[in-house]
Amino acid sequence: MMIWLALSIIFLLTLALMLVPLYRHQNDSAVPKNIVKNNVKNIAVYKAQLLELQSDLDNGVLSMAEVAAARLEIERRLLRISSEKETIEPKSNEVSLRLLTIIISLVLLGSAAFYLNIGMPGMPDFALKDQAHSTAQRTKNNSASPEMIAEVAKIQAYLVENPDDVPGNINAWRALGQYQTDLQNRAKAAEAFQHWFELDGDNIDAAVIFSESLIMLSDGRVSPAALLALDRAQKIQPGNPGVRHYLALAEYQAGNVDQALVNWQALMADSPTDAPWRRSVQRWIGKAQNDLGLPVTNSTAIAPPLSEANRKAIAEMSPEEQEALIKSMVARLAQKMEDNPENIDGWFRLAKAYMMLDQKPDAIKALEQAEKFAPDALKPQIKKQLEILLK
After folding, report:
1. 104 and 153 fall within a common domain
2. Rounded-to-integer distance, Cα 208 and Cα 193, Å
3. What's residue 82's pLDDT?
4. Tens digit of pLDDT for each residue in 26-80?
5. Between 317 and which of 33, 103, 321, 323 could a Cys-Cys bridge form, CB atoms 3.0 to 4.6 Å apart?
6. Are residue 110 and residue 159 in the same domain, yes or no?
7. Distance of alpha carbon 292 from alpha carbon 313, whole angstroms
8. Cβ-proximal residues to 113 (8 Å cutoff; 6+ apart), any chain
């Protein structure tokens, strides 16, 4: 009941605040009827006097100068009364106070009815700490966050205090990258893993994890920076399953679906039957087969996606001819990007193609073009990749 009483009081106060000034203005501007009546009579008298002045002039009762002076005085009085009349008479185009009162009341009542239709006046307030977006609730849902944040601060302090402790920094950067990953700070995680990779460049785990962090930073795309790290990892351990998978994924994203399928099938053939990555690789094989219009199978056998004639023709080419063919394909892609520079994915594919050809400066130029046309949300990721390539 209290809510309805409060709403009623608010309604009446609002109505009073809007209407009382209007009534007051009307009362202040009202003029007694006898004053209006007297003004009308005076106007008639002054008009009659003007006629009498002309008659007195014609009869010689008044001179010309006396008539002019008298006429001026009478006209002055007429002008004053006319001005007063215009001031006190209401304008014909003003909205009547009664109609305005009705309109205001209908608006207020309509607002109240609309609230009653969609609102819930009896609903209690929600405490801020119980709302999903509040800091307290997020901390409750992720109870490890305060501890992880504290650990991040400790590691960062250690790195500042011990810049020359290489073994300790290797472990610190690796742990920091893992914490930042758990905290979903992708850019900071990639930066930490980059420092780990730079300090321990022959460690296959550092190379693979750094590559994965860059791929995560690019929302699943094997960026040119990630491809550079993967090439280093391949030299360290050519048969590493993670490296082989991501290099196949780079081929797939560059449009070389047939080559990606061959690489994934080869990985499946070399993997133990209980390898944890087999299911994920098989899904990519099925996707590549579907893209190529081939029957989707669960077999681990290597099914050549290219026709025998095409395969034979490529095999018969000399290394120089094969390189020329690849370069011509890349050149066609570069020309397409000149014609359609706003195609961000195309610039990424071109950059990766240049990296595969070991043309790092051209890959950097392609990424710079991608950054130029990329949306604001994607620019920090491209900038990070450029920083890595420019080192």
Report:
1. no
2. 10
3. 65
4. 555 444 555 545 656 666 776 777 777 777 777 766 677 777 777 777 777 777 7
5. 321
6. no
7. 20
8. none
- Domain final residue, candidates 238, 268, 302: 238
Same structural domain, 42 and 111: yes
The domain total for the chain is 3
DSSP string computed for 131-144: STTSHHHHHHH-TT
- Domain of 14 in residue numbering reads as 2-118
Separation of first and last alpha carbons in the chain: 72
Q: For residue 162, what is the domain's CATH number? A: 1.25.40.10
**Rounded Cα gap, residues 217 and 339, in angstroms:** 28
- C-alpha to C-alpha distance for 204 and 386, rounded to whole angstroms: 23
Sign (positive or negative) of CA dihedral 46, 47, 48, 50: positive
pTM of the model: 0.46
Whether residue 266 is contained in a domain is answered as no
Question: Can you tell me the distance from the alpha carbon of 286 to that of 274, in angstroms, rounded to the nearest whole number?
Answer: 19
| Res 368 pLDDT > 80 | yes
Q: Does residue 176 fall inside a structural domain?
A: yes
- Residue 82: half-sphere exposure toward Cβ, Cα within 13 Å: 9
